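Q: Convert this sequence to structure tokens.
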Amino acid sequence: MGKHYGHINKAHRALIAKQHMFWVATAALSKDHHVNVSPKAHARGCFSVVDDLTVAYLDLTGSGSETVAHLRENGRITILFNNIEEGAPAIVRLHGKGSVVLPSEVGKEANVHWGCFRFVSVVLSEST
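A:
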């Protein structure tokens, strides 16, 4: 059984920074819909730990946009990082409420090259 933490600590930040990939899971409220799990490349600058309770990532627009639909419906999101490449195996799950920010909703001062990306901001409810 994993440990539950109320924030992202230094060890979590270090594990997150080393990973090349992470997974995002969201789900609709209806029992007739499925859980959506999407792998994401962890390229430099595409994922950020904003503070101990907030993370953000640039999300590539994809087929179906289920993540966006689920976030707009209920905001629930889990982000999973796992270390399987070097050192001891470890998993960090970030559970929280997410929101989608489109390029048109951000001022030009944000200095982000959007391309085909949209921004997802997540405020954590707990992390492990």
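Helices lie at 10-18, 66-74.
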